[in-house]
Amino acid sequence: MSEKSVVDNVNKQLFIGGTWRDAEGGKTLEVADPSTGRVLTEVADASVADGKAALDAAVAAQEAWAATPPRDRGEILRRAFELITERTDELALLMTLEMGKTIKESKAEIAYASEFFRWFSEEAVRISGRFSMAPNGATRLLTMKQPVGPCLMITPWNFPIAMGTRKIGPAVAAGCTMVVKPASLTPLSMLAIGGIMAEAGLPDGVLNIVTTSTTGDVMEPLIRDPRLRKLTFTGSTEVGRRLIEQSAQGVLRVSMELGGNAPFLVFGDADIDKAVDGAMLAKMRNIGEACTAANRFIVHESVAEEFSSKLAERMSAMTVGRGSEEGSEVGPLVEAKQRDKVAALVDDAVARGAKALTGGKPLERDGYFYPPTVLTGVSEDATMFREEIFGPVAPMFTFADDDEGIAMANDTEFGLVAYAFTQDFSRAIRLSERLQTGMVGINQGIVSNPAAPFGGVKSSGFGREGGAEGIEEYLETKYVGLAL
Ligand code: NAP
């Protein structure tokens, strides 16, 4: 399996109504390898009319799909789970080539991503309602769940498959049809999933995939189309805000998985070695390009030096290289713009007094590499205290008591996830209650789990993906009053 063959094997057209077709006028957009900067291939570049054709196909398939037995919908997801699992090696190489992360990390994403299909294949047959009597006994109340209807799913480049399967899985299980728009930097992985879904027996038109470089122009008419019933978006808060406004016109059901600024709290009683293990995961998973990435290390002053020096030792020992190369542990950032943004955030922190224990400057080589970096003495005025870094940079801040640490953790517009390391059970529960986030990891550096409700509060969005809650996002509740 060569790099060329995995790229060649993917269908690069639009997937609409069960057929692969070129974009209007045969237009294409380039996909590059961030570890070299070189173009890998080209995929179809959809026009506004192509986008509309995809929604037409989703609308046409909706009624029959909603009437398809839940067991059949679940079996398709189960087959897709198995096909993805069988093809992990090929999919992992493809993902690494377009996104940059190491093969090991691509495989971990694929295992996580496919698990949403297995989980929701089990949920499809557990959609239920209620039957009850009105308090005055005059009427019966039948409560049923029905699919929301055609959905638009817009996904980011950082987890090119998982951010899609988290939406596709519950939508398929619930009986919704959909148009998926993957990020233009990483469309290949999702196109490969489209092929797998068709092979797994998904009927034509249930899943449609549109790739485009004129994203705003192609998406807005779909969001404003009265036939669309739901918009689900994972991406930046800035774009999310714009899409919420656009979806107000059609009063759409909306789910928003937006940016983060995760605090990673280390208390004085923490097991420091375990905290460093957790920090490696929370910071270095996906090269730091994760909405859940630890963005601010807030460490009790009594253990700050030990924690930061141990973390710097581990981070400086990591091997930076092309994701597809044996032994690489840290791949490139996704594009030059992202690398330059990380470099500017570090320069800003250093200008305000921070010191780099390791890293601190972009690597001078082809591709968009930035080395693992640990910064101590970072001022709360540094821009990276407020903004998502999205790179392998760990800034250290210190606190003196619990109230101060929690106040620093909550001092952000974002509220996706917080991590905390402590061996005191009461403190763990108390602080979990006080942290203004949708998720908390106690003594663990990763919270993503298909069986748990993933999502944020404040500017990190609303709605939950995964868990028992995940399918509710794709279901409407209808009540029927029955006078007997
Ligand atoms: P982004 O720029 O917001 O892009 C996300 C998606 O939105 C892409 O498919 C993009 O298409 C599309 N898009 C851009 N402008 C649009 C517009 N005007 N109308 C409709 N769609 C538009 O975000 P990103 O840089 O890809 O992803 C990184 C962000 O995602 C980070 O902030 C991260 O925290 C967040 N994220 C959140 C979660 C979560 O679950 N909370 C998970 C992963 C990532 P193009 O690619 O064509 O621009």
Key terms:
alpha/beta, seven-stranded mixed β-sheet, six-stranded mixed β-sheet, 484 residues, binds NADP nicotinamide-adenine-dinucleotide phosphate, Aldehyde Dehydrogenase, Chain A, domain 1, Aldehyde Dehydrogenase, Chain A, domain 2, globular, 2 domains, 21% strand
Question: What does this molecule look like?
Answer:
The protein is α/β, with parallel strands linked by helices and 484 residues long. It has 2 domains: 3-258 and 461-483, 3-Layer(aba) Sandwich (Aldehyde Dehydrogenase, Chain A, domain 1); 262-449, Aldehyde Dehydrogenase, Chain A, domain 2, CATH 3.40.309. 38% of the residues lie in helices and 21% in strands. Helix 6 links the parallel strand 7 (151-154) and strand 8. Helix 3 packs antiparallel against helix 6. The chain is globular and about 70 Å long. The N and C termini lie far apart (66 Å). The model has no long low-confidence stretch (mean pLDDT 98). Bound molecules: NADP nicotinamide-adenine-dinucleotide phosphate. NADP nicotinamide-adenine-dinucleotide phosphate binds next to helix 8 and helix 9. NADP nicotinamide-adenine-dinucleotide phosphate binds at residues 154-159, 163, 181, 183-185, 215-216, 219, 234-236, 239, 242-243, 257-260, 291, 388, 416, 456, 460-461.
